[in-house]
Amino acid sequence: MPTRQRRGESAPAALLARSPSAGATFRPNRLLKQMLVLGLGVATSGFAAAATAQTPAGPAASPVAQSGPPSPATPRETPRSGAAKPGDPLAAIDWLATPAPDAGLPGTVLLEPPVAGSARRPEVTVTPLASLVAPIGLVKPASTGLPVDLWRGSNAEALATLLASVPVRKSPAMQSLMFTLLLSETRPPVEGGERLLLARLDRLMDLGAPDPAQALAEQAGPTRSKARFKRWFDATLLTGDEQQACSALQDRPHLAPDYASRIFCAARLGDWPTAALLLEAAHALELVDSRQLDLLDRFLNPDVFEDAPPLRAPKSPDPLTFRLYETIGERRPTSNLPRAFAAADLRDIAGWKAQLEAAERLTRIGALNPNHLLGLYTERSPAASGGIWDRVAALQRFETALETGSAEAVSKTLPKVWRAMQTAQIETAFADLFADQLARIPLDGQAANLAWRIRLLAPTYETASHSPPPSQGRSAFVAAVAQGVPTQELARSGVEQAIAAAFATDSAAPRKLQRLLDNGQLGESILRAMQLFAQGADGNLGDLTDALATFRAVGLEDTARRAALQLLLLDHR
Predict the structure, then answer these.
(1) CA-to-CA separations, 288 to 201, 230, 281, 282, 297, in angstroms, rounded
(2) Of 309, 315, 318, the residue nearest 288 (C-alpha)
(3) Cβ distance 410 to 398 under 8 Å?
(4) Residue 561: predicted pLDDT
């Protein structure tokens, strides 16, 4: 009578529980039981043969276990190496074809090696999640000297507030440090990384640097969020590189900052029918402000409004509105707009005067390379006199004097060009451009004193400090600051005393900032020191000492010296 498979018993186990002869039962050895429990999926005939060969003969034993010559299929006498031989049991897994264990070995679990050498708890390596976040920035830490975990341990919202509010307008050294913090390749905090990235982009735009803002957004992935895309789109509109942003918007319309941007991008990509259809929908559904609708009408249908009077200029246009006015031939001046708009005047479509004014404005905040300014200053002869044209003429005459190598010519032109640079408040840019050439001209008198002060504002200030002019009354203290060793004996004013205290051997960061440093919050401590410096420059001398001491404590010795020198030499600020 056929036997019925028991519930929960696998088919191979049910088959092996019965002998193929007269229904006699046998007990499979321990190894086979363990292999069956693990579900190793071996062919039934192979397991049955192996089990029968290792089971003592009974009254109704299988023919495989009878006396006589052993069967070729017996695993004990037929090694399983290489290709299978006829009569061998079939295995679905290759390593099951290895020889059966020797009968003298103890019955271990599949003869596996031990998984642990002792009962002690294994050592666990812990990796913080922050180290898994990719750093974002345009300048490598090796170039900036700042670590990749600059923002570690700080609250992202607090950092964003500091980045937006730290004043840097009066100090070129603080401007340079701020750009370094914004552009350095750093890893965002574990929580709030998006908030910090947006704050970096916003401050770059506020400082008039849409090109770095665009590059930083592209590195971070501008289409990963709507907020990122908006900042990227605004930056490309001001740099004239909106083609890529419009292509991304066409593929992902949900990222559009507003409906007007979709109309503009459709037209920018040459899809005029879609742009016209979107404009009609905006009219019908009132999706766009009426003033911007009038602007978009003129943008898409210039021939219809050819003789229409100009539109009223908005007081605070966004980048898209600014570009739309530009495309319909009603370009707006940027002098009364945020600094980022000045970058749009650096393009060739702007006039030379507009380019010069924009270049001075951006150089004043440290957002433009001085060489770019020099190229614009010397591009052509001044078109008129007065204002910016006098500055252009003065610089061109001074550069001509330098090229001749005449000390007399330089002595005549240097005071006038220096006054022009002071008027534009771009003295440090002038020093960066001409300090090395001035060092090679043998000047004397007032011209030598002025040339020495200019050289102290350049990156080679320490070299200049070793050759002060003899007639300078404050030269000893200023030279000591450039060398990092000012003393109270040389200080004459309260500002000089505060600076000397910061460079003393026993100076240290204030307790509040030292606690941040002890917690590894380097970036936040630098930002708070920059806040203290701004307050110190405005007259709070205690804050001035604390700020300079903190810069020195974190290794920003060059920043501390240059900030102190600029505070002493740029006294008109």
Answers:
(1) 26, 17, 10, 6, 12
(2) 318
(3) yes
(4) 98
299: helix, strand or coil? helix
Task: Identify the residue whose tokens are 């000012």.
Answer: 486
CA angle 27, 33, 34 (to 5 degrees): 160
| Angular region, 373: left φ>0, alpha ψ -120 to 50, beta rest | alpha
* Residue 260 host element (H or E): helix 259-268
SS (H, E, C) 493-523: CHHHHHHHHHCCCCCCCCHHHHHHHHCCCHH
Q: What is the pLDDT of residue 326?
A: 94
Asked whether the beta carbons of 207 and 179 are under 8 A apart, the reply is: yes
| DSSP annotation of 253 | G
Rg, the chain, Cα only: 40
Does residue 82 come out as left (phi exceeding 0), alpha (psi in the -120 to 50 range) or beta?
left
Report the C-alpha gap between 376 and 157 in whole angstroms: 40
Q: How far apart are CA 473 and CA 398, in angstroms?
A: 27
Nearest in space to 300 (alpha carbons), one of 332, 266, 331: 266
What distance in Å separates the CA atoms of residue 436 and residue 500, rounded to the nearest whole number?
A: 28
Question: Cβ of 389: how many Cβ atoms within 10 Å?
Answer: 15
Helix (H) or strand (E) holding 53: helix 44-53
d(CA 193, CA 72): 70
Measured from the Cβ of residue 369, the count of other Cβ atoms closer than 10 Å reads 14
Q: Which of 417, 415, 436, 438 shows the shortest CA–CA distance to 426?
A: 417
- Nearest to 268, CA basis, from 290, 248, 246: 246
Closest to 410 in 3D by CA, of 385, 445, 378: 445
Residue with tokens 């450039």, as numbered in its chain = 482
Q: Which of 220, 218, 215 is nearest to 196 (CA)?
A: 220
Amino acid (1-letter code) at residue 428: T
**How far apart, in whole angstroms, are the C-alpha atoms of residue 189 and residue 180?**
18
> Which residues, listed in sequence order, are joined to residue 42 by a DSSP beta bridge?
91
User: Which of 367, 340, 365, 362 is CA-nearest to residue 202?
Assistant: 340
Gap between the Cα atoms of 175 and 103, Å rounded:
82
User: Which residues 6+ apart lie within 8 Å of 205 measured at CB?
Assistant: 213, 231, 234, 235, 338, 340
Q: Which residue has the tokens 């299978």?
A: 84
pLDDT score for 189: 85
| Residue with token string 């990227």 | 232
296 and 279 in contact (C-beta within 8 Å)? Answer: yes
The predicted model scores a pTM of 0.77
Instruction: Report the pLDDT value the prediction gives residue 134, as an integer from 0 to 100.
Output: 87
Low-confidence ranges of the chain (pLDDT < 50): 1-28, 31-83, 103-112
* Ramachandran quadrant class, 422 (left: phi over 0; alpha: psi -120 to 50; beta: rest): alpha
Cα distances (angstroms) measured from residue 308 to each of 303, 315, 327, 355, 368 = 10, 21, 15, 29, 39
Contact 178, 166 (CB under 8 A): yes
Between CA 358 and CA 366 the distance in angstroms is 12
CB count within 10 Å of CB 72 equals 11
Report the alpha-carbon distance of residue 546 to residue 11 in Å, rounded.
82
Using alpha carbons, list the distances in angstroms from residue 541 to 212, 480, 500, 530, 561: 35, 19, 11, 14, 16
